[in-house]
Specification:
Number of strands: 15
CATH architecture of the largest domain: 3-Layer(aba) Sandwich
Distance between the termini: 94 Å
CATH class of the largest domain: Alpha Beta
Number of domains: 3
CATH topology of the largest domain: Rossmann fold
Shape: elongated
Strand content: 5-15%
Structural class: alpha/beta
Length: 481
Amino acid sequence: MLRFIAAGLFILLSLPASAERLVFIVGNAAYTELPRLENTLSDAKAYQTTFAQLGYTTFYHQDLSLDEMYEAFEEFLVRIKPGDEVAFVYSGHGWSDGAVNYLVPIDAPRGGGDLVLKRRSFALRNGLNGVLDEIEHAEAGFALAIVDACRNNPFEQPKGRKSVRLTRGLSVVKAAQGTFVVFSAGEGQEALDRLPNDPPEQELSVFSRTFIPRLLQGQYLEDAIAQTQLETAKLALQVDGHLQHPAYYDQTLGKTCLSDVCSPDSGANVSNVVARPRVSSEPLGKIALHEARSDNTCAAFRAVARDYRGTDYAVLANYEGASVCALEYPYCDTSNIRELRDIEVSPLTSNGLKLLQQRLNSLGCSVGGADGVWGQGSKRGLLEYSKEAGLKIDIETPDCAVLKEVHARPLSQFCPVSCKVYEQLVSGSCIRKSCPSGQTLSRSDGSCYTKKAAIPKKASNYEPPQGGANCFVFNGATHCD
């Protein structure tokens, strides 16, 4: 159970005095091994100009390697304060493994297995440390993601398209409460960089050229993307009937205005925009809390506690959701956390550690016995898992988020098979080595050796006295009667 100070239920906390508007923009074009893209940098710079006009502080980057993307994004994350309005814009190659959407840095390899490509890509949302996950952990009040990438395999490319079709299924992003995600193309579709009749001065992709002007016209975000969907689809059909239907995933309440003024008229221009005061979060918080009570899930209460932090609705959500979350997270020690947002970083109970050990063993990341005691063998197994998954995991004190990540992994031989020195790998299994006839296998170094013949004992030349005489030994000599 979560502990709360009872008096806190009756205190109405104040909202943050001033929420910042921040946007992180990445445009990747100069890929070292993959095909270079034509309009991504122009798109990224156009978004930088647009968001600056909308009052956002912009953090612009282009042609980033994987390490540079991590470093730049970490610097951006430290700027986010609870309640800030945050946007993320990406233009470049993208792909999906059917469950997670990935953004591709410029130093990504041309080929390789899924594990290699995942390690060399940047996850949009994976439930742990993707872009949207980290923004959620930073407690942004609102998050917008605009991804102008095709979300499939970029490792071959027809001219004029951002990547080719991928035969595997693509995943629908699971956006958290308070998040609005926009894709330039729908599932399984390709995002067009250009149209056949584009003049040389047209530097924006088909999606960006229709979406960006609507953001500057003061339209609500929902209206802007709806009109963009129609216009983009119409333009894409000019390319041999190509299908490109931008998709969006909205987990916000009401309509979203990126500026201080928005117009309900989809065809509005700046002169027609009417100033609208920002709506207080309290009435929406009351609705959200009521919905959480009806849903009665930990996720619902956590969403209210996060989205309305600083209000009495968040306090109530933390209090009422405590028992619900304790039931849904039986392997997590929730006794010392004060807010639902901390539940996934709470330590594991002994049973939770045992379950983690069992799962790691099932994935081939051997920890030894699953006894709930977190020793050196368990740490080595989790370290091996983290390397294969390309994740940064605290192997000393794994928390509930680690258990969630490992348990979500499909059961298979995830970690490489590691055989003992006297074994050899055969068809994915460790088999004891065999030695030629007459030789013995050494368990210490795995070599075969021939045992030395035993040296026979030297026969004694002592003969007992005859006749059954009584004998005794005195001063080393035997004397008989």
